[in-house]
Structures are given as C-alpha cells and as structure tokens.
Design brief:
This protein is about 40% helix and about 15% strand. The chain has 23 helices and 18 strands. The protein is α/β, with parallel strands linked by helices and about 575 residues long. A hairpin with a 4-residue loop joins strand 6 and strand 7. The protein is globular and about 75 Å long. The protein binds 2'-deoxyguanosine-5'-triphosphate (DGT) and calcium ion (2 copies). The site of one calcium ion (CA) has 6 residues, from helix 10 and strand 4. The site of one calcium ion has 6 residues, from helix 10 and strand 4.
C-alpha cells in the first residue's frame, strides 16, 4: 500500500501527541506538528515528489532529519520514531487528548496511575470512581471527564466527513473501473447526495462477470476487513475504518439501482408511493408494471416514467424536490465554475501558512478575479490576531501588491471578533479602511440563547458589517452550533443586507444545508468562503458549493459568483436606500 500524504501527516501528529504526553521538549513536539501540516497541505503526493528526485528540505518546516524520516517512511511504510514512541506509550493515549479538559499531563497521569490506554478504559475508570483518587483530579474532574466523553459520543456518531471519505472513495472507484469486465461503476448513497458526513459508501457496478468482480474487490489493497462477500454484494471495511457496500447489478437495472442506492430513504419512499398510485412497483431492480419492466436502465428513465425531470442527488431528501420537479420548478443549482472569487482567507500575518503573494498566486491559479484577505483580529490570541497597527500595515501591503497585479484584485478585510457584548474587536477608524468587514465569534460560545442572539444582532447593527462568518460556530462531530435564534438573525441579515457565510471548511460547512436554505428563503444573501489557511485549502471551495447545492441555491443566491464591479456595488451599497 503506497504511503499517502495523509498517512505521513497522521503519523507525525500521533508522534507529536505521544512525545507531548511523555513530556518531551516542546520544540520537538512543535517541529513534528509543523511538519504534519506541511505534508497535509501539499497538493501532490510526497511519494511522487521523492520519485521525481525532489528535495523535501525545500518545503517549509522540513529539515534534513525530517526529510530523511519521511523518505524512510515512504520506502518502508514505517515511521521508526513512532514505533519507538509506541514502545514506551500506547498509541491509544492520543485519543484522550481529544477530550475537553484532558491535556498531555493528565493523559500521562491516567496512564501511569490507572493503566488507562483508551477513551473506553477512561470512561470505565471514571464510572468506577477510580479517577478521583488520582492526585490533581478529584470528584468534580472525574464527573466532568465522564460528561465530556458522553457528550462527545453524542456529537460524533461513527460518521466520516465527506471530504475525508473522498480520497478513499475515488481511489477505490478508479481501481474498480480498471477491473476486467467492469462496465460502469459509481458511488451512490449519501456520498452522491454530498451530505457533509457519510455513514458508509455504496458502490454500484455493472460487469460481464459479476462474481469475478465481487471476488476481486475483496483483494483491493486498502481493505482492512471483508465483512461479507457474495456473488453480487460485498461489504468491506477499509483500513481507515470506512465501510463500503459494493453491489454488482445487471446493466438493465443500473439506473434503478443507482436511484435506489442514492436514496435518500425518504425520497425513495415518496417516489415508491407514487409508483403504487399508478399500480406500479419500484425497487432497485427497476420500475415494473404487471411484472413487466418499464424503466430502469438509466435514472432519467425512472423519473421520466413519472413524467418528472431528473432530480439532482443533492436535492433528494424529500424536502419538496418531487413536488418542485412536478411543477418544473427545480432550481438551477450553483456550480463551482460560477465562483469568481473568495472572501475569507488567512495569511502568515496571523495563523495562515502562506503570505499574501503566495495566496494571491494560488487564487489566480484557480481562475478567480478577486481574493479577500481576512486575517483574525487581536482577540484571537492563539492565532496571533492583528491589532489596528498591524492591520494598517497589511492594508498598505495589499495596496502595493494590487499595483503590481493585473488579473486579480486583493480585497482588504478582517475577520473581526465579535466580543461578548456584540462590539467589535477593532476600532471603526481602521475598519473603515477595509473593503468589507467580516464578523465572527470565536470565544464565549456557551452563552445562553437570548444573550448569544443579542450579541450577534448587536454586531449586525454595526454600519460597517457586511458578512458574518461561520454563523453557528459548529464543528462537525465535535461541537454543536451555538444557541441562536436563527430566524431573528436571518431577518436582521436581510434587513441590513449582511451576507451569511457557508464556510467551506469540511469540518464547519456552516451554515448547513437546511439553515442556508432557510436564510435564502428569508431574503438573505449567502457567501461561500473557504477560510483557507493555506493555498491548498482554497480548493475547499467545492465543499462549500456542495453544501450550497444541498441548500437549493443558485449562483445568483451567492455573493461571490458576482463579477468584481457588482460585488463592489453590493459591498458599498451597504444598507443605503436603494436595493
Ligand atoms: P449513510 O450511509 O448513513 O450516510 O446514508 P445513506 O443514504 O448512504 O444510507 P445507506 O448506506 O444506509 O443506504 C443507501 C441507500 O439505500 C439509501 O440512501 C436509500 C437506500 N435504502 C437503504 N435502506 C432502505 C430502505 O429501507 N428503504 C428504502 N426505500 N431505501 C433504502
Ligand atoms: Ca451510505
Ligand atoms: Ca450502505
């Protein structure tokens, strides 16, 4: 199995965690974390770079020693330092660090004092009241740990972020397509509907010899476990843990199978009910009338039998799509190619990995005409947020850079923190010099609903406010949305003409599909921002577009599909009189 960038980055991160738990030198720990993020941000496979004889020490954060370690890792599939570290401390300990309130010191104490090596063991120890006896813990800490473990279990059912599933899914699909006798292969299920997380992958295949393909897939290089295998259906678990259902179907049923396994279940049930109304039967083998197949080779044929146009998978959630199709009122969904720029990015001035020029070049490479630089403000200390002086310097730098650029315009912004009372983290005197102000909350996310809502509403009353970034603050699988009265937020956004973001980071996708749709229906302008902290993350745009499509949005509903002059008009118009 070739070593992927993700494997290298994960190994370095695990190593850094273990070193930290073992109380190693913080600079060493930092060095591994930085190396992990460098590797993760490469758009090309490191193994290809090595094969091409490229020098890894030219990458940021990679010195001779790390380059050597990576090279041996790619050759042997092992990171020797990680093997050595796991001889001393069990790798399972690193999962303890994901629990709020447990840092490296506590993880070490739990291991030394109680022999805890995993989250499950920690939960058991806490339930048996063994944790409170450890020095530095006590009864309160024990209860909080148990509470956090349970809370996390609720927020992270075993689902995989769509973006994390993608590389595994596409590699598997490519491989299946290359098997002898395979005609068609595609991924259906929630993956095709572009849900933000997937429970498993559902692969539909047509082939001349189904049994041979079903046997072959069990030998795919990334298989961790064969859960079941039959002539036409195979269930696998990939090494990363993701489960895959592979079904080989007859060519004449391919469309019906794609339709059935794309789901959603609720969409299928609604369509099946229509079939019953006609006295037909709809299932994964086709659409039948008196046991005669009347449609099923293509998805279009299935919809056409109901006199419906083909419905994009992103809409198939039984949220009104069948009715809309019937009235010929399906939206023309936004596409990545319509995106003309990006209004949410970071640079090395705060916690980004690339400087202004590098980000500008990367934006131009993506065919964009404008790039908004929106570094953090001072309240976000961990990100080295900007104060007014540093922001002023960045403004001058951007002005100078814009003089030299001719096919891209850098827009000046700031992701200014919305403080607890709804005031902004920087004075108006500096905010006035920006092309637009983007507000966001990073602290005090636990306020109760009324206070949290008032806080944002106050910020939205600021005359310079133009965009609210990641409005609910949720992190998928980790942290739920803050308590907010979104109806009031939408009403204020529509009234004050403030755009709400669909943040394109795969773990945020905030607003989510249903909230973004409700916002649009309330008259709110949406904006898709990558929140990119590196050039590679500019490619997150497509994840935001996926979420926007699930929200039924067209290009015209999204601010950053506009040409620059229209965007400038929109930003400048603010809440002035005319529409
Ligand atoms: P997931 O995997 O949890 O992210 O979500 P899906 O939608 O991929 O669900 P999955 O993998 O359980 O099943 C794939 C599709 O198969 C599902 O979207 C619709 C179809 N399907 C599964 N079970 C049923 C069922 O009981 N009735 C109907 N009508 N369709 C089903
Ligand atoms: Ca699935
Ligand atoms: Ca499935």
């Amino acid at each position: 199995m070739p070593v992927r960038n993700r494997d290298i980055a994960n190994a370095f991160e695990t190593l850094a965690d273990l070193l930290e738990i073992g109380d190693a030198n913080p600079f060493r720990v930092r060095a591994y974390r930085n190396a992990a993020s460098t590797v993760r941000d490469q758009s090309r496979p490191i193994r290809d770079m090595l094969a091409a004889g490229e020098d890894l020490t030219e990458l940021p954060n990679i010195g001779d020693d790390l380059a050597g370690q990576i090279e041996r890792f790619v050759e042997t599939g092992h990171l020797a330092r990680l093997d050595a570290a796991t001889d001393k401390l069990p790798a399972g300990l690193t999962a303890l660090l994901d629990i709020n309130g447990i840092g490296p010191k506590r993880a070490h104490a739990l291991y030394e004092g109680l022999g805890v090596t995993s989250v499950d063991e920690l939960a058991a120890a806490a339930r048996d009241q063994r944790v409170r006896a450890l020095s530095g813990f006590g009864e309160k800490a024990e209860q909080r740990i148990l509470h956090e473990i349970e809370r996390q279990a609720r927020h992270s059912p075993a689902r995989t972020l769509l973006a994390d599933a993608e590389e595994m899914a596409e590699s598997l699909l490519d491989w299946i397509r290359q098997r002898a006798g395979v005609d068609k292969a595609a991924i259906a299920g929630s993956y095709r509907r572009r849900r933000e997380t997937v429970g498993d992958l559902d692969v539909v295949v047509t082939a001349s010899d189904p049994a041979a393909v079903s046997r072959a897939v069990t030998r795919y290089e990334d298989v961790g476990e064969v859960i079941s295998s039959g002539e036409t259906r195979t269930t696998l678990r990939l090494r990363g843990g993701l489960q895959v259902d592979i079904r080989v179907v007859p060519a004449r049923a391919y469309g019906a199978a794609m339709h059935y396994f794309t789901g959603s279940r609720d969409h299928n049930i609604a369509l099946r009910r229509r079939a019953q109304g006609h006295g037909w039967k709809l299932n994964e083998y086709g659409l039948f009338k008196d046991d005669q197949i009347i449609a099923g080779d293509t998805e279009e044929s299935v919809y056409e039998a109901f006199s419906l146009p083909w419905i994009p998978p992103e809409l198939r959630e039984n949220r009104g799509e069948i009715e809309a199709a019937e009235e010929d009122a399906l939206p023309t969904l936004i596409e990545v190619a319509e995106i003309r720029g990006n209004l949410h990015t970071h640079t090395t001035a705060t916690d980004g990995k690339a400087d202004l020029e590098e980000m500008a070049e990367a934006a131009r490479d993506r065919g964009w005409r404008y790039l908004g630089i929106s570094d953090h403000s001072r309240a976000v200390r961990v990100a080295n947020g900007l104060d007014a002086d540093r922001l002023a310097r960045q403004i001058d730098e951007i002005d100078a850079l814009n003089e030299r650029l001719d096919d891209l315009v850098i827009l000046k912004s700031c992701e200014v923190d919305i403080l607890r009372d709804g005031s902004l983290d920087l004075p108006d005197s500096i905010l006035e010099r920006l092309d637009y102000v983007m507000g966001a909350m990073h602290g005090q996310l636990g306020l109760e609903r009324r206070a949290q809502t008032e806080r944002i509403l106050e910020a939205m009353d600021h005359p310079l406010m133009r965009i609210i970034a990641h409005p609910t603050g949720r992190l998928i699988g980790r942290r739920g949305p803050v308590a907010l009265d979104l109806d009031r937020i939408f009403e204020a956004a529509a009234r004050n003409r403030i755009a709400l973001e669909i943040n394109a980071q795969p773990k945020r996708l905030d607003l989510d599909d249903q909230n973004a749709r409700a916002a649009r229906d309330a008259g709110v302008m949406l904006v898709i921002g990558t929140d990119a902290h590196s050039p590679a993350q500019l490619d997150f745009m497509r994840h935001g577009v996926d979420q926007a499509r699930r929200a039924w949005l067209s290009g015209s509903d999204v601010l950053n599909t506009r040409p620059l002059n229209q965007l400038r008009d929109w930003l400048a118009r603010g809440r002035s009189a005319d529409g």
